[in-house]
Amino acid sequence: MIIREMNSTAGDHAGRKMYYVKVKTSPGECKEWPWLFIKLYEPPLVTSVSRVEFKGLKKMKEEYKLVTF
Questions:
Q1: How confident is the model at residue 10, as a pLDDT?
Q2: pLDDT digits over 16-62, tens only?
Q3: What is the DSSP string of 14-36?
Q4: Which of 4, 11, 20, 44 is the most exposed place for a label (fewest CB within 10 A)?
Q5: What count of other Cβ atoms lies within 10 Å of the Cβ of residue 18?
Q6: Which residues contact 64 (CB under 8 A, 6 or more apart)?
Q7: Does the pTM exceed 0.85?
Q8: What are the residues facing 5 on neighbouring strands?
Q9: Cα 17 to Cα 5: distance, rounded to the nearest angstrom
Q10: Dihedrals phi, psi of 57, to nearest 5 degrees
Q11: Residue-level pLDDT at 20
């Protein structure tokens, strides 16, 4: 997992985080895309019931080193 903290000079947006997670799918479930890269965003303040937001997904046919996207 890669965690990127995003701090701004304004102060009101300080503490935001972006998470990049590498996931291996179940062997029998998804043969075409066995690896997923998932990007999640955590805002600095709780603004709703769920504070973490899904921001992106990359499907990979082969295992690669986790990268940001």
A1: 56
A2: 888 999 988 887 777 888 998 999 988 877 666 667 888 998 888 88
A3: TTEEEEEEEEEPPTTT-SS--EE
A4: 11
A5: 16
A6: 35
A7: no
A8: 17
A9: 5
A10: -150, 135
A11: 92
